[in-house]
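Attaching the record inline, Q. Sequence:
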Amino acid sequence: HNLAKSYRDTSRTDQAEAQYRQALRMWEDLVRQDPGAAEYPDGLAKSHNDLGLMYHLAGQKSRAEPEFLKALEIQERLARQSLEVNLAVENLRLLLLERGTGTGRHG
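Structure, as predicted:
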């Protein structure tokens, strides 16, 4: 990733694109191997975003948009999953509080 950014920052777009594509393949493989690991989809989203930024900076706006949209789709999915986890944590917290106070409130 750092090498790709260095290529991007020095206007070596072809080399940067090759590095970003390699990173995307790596993240896609990791997501397939362990779909439950949140850090892999996050890395995949960041790679799509970085590739989109490279295209944008190179004036290739029509190629940038799909990469930004892929990154956004992945991040939205992660946000929904995070919200579900936060809801479960909150429900457990309430249950434990009720158990401690003996209110017996459920629901």
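Residues 38 and 82 are 9 Å apart (CA to CA). The chain has a mean pLDDT of 87.

More tomorrow.
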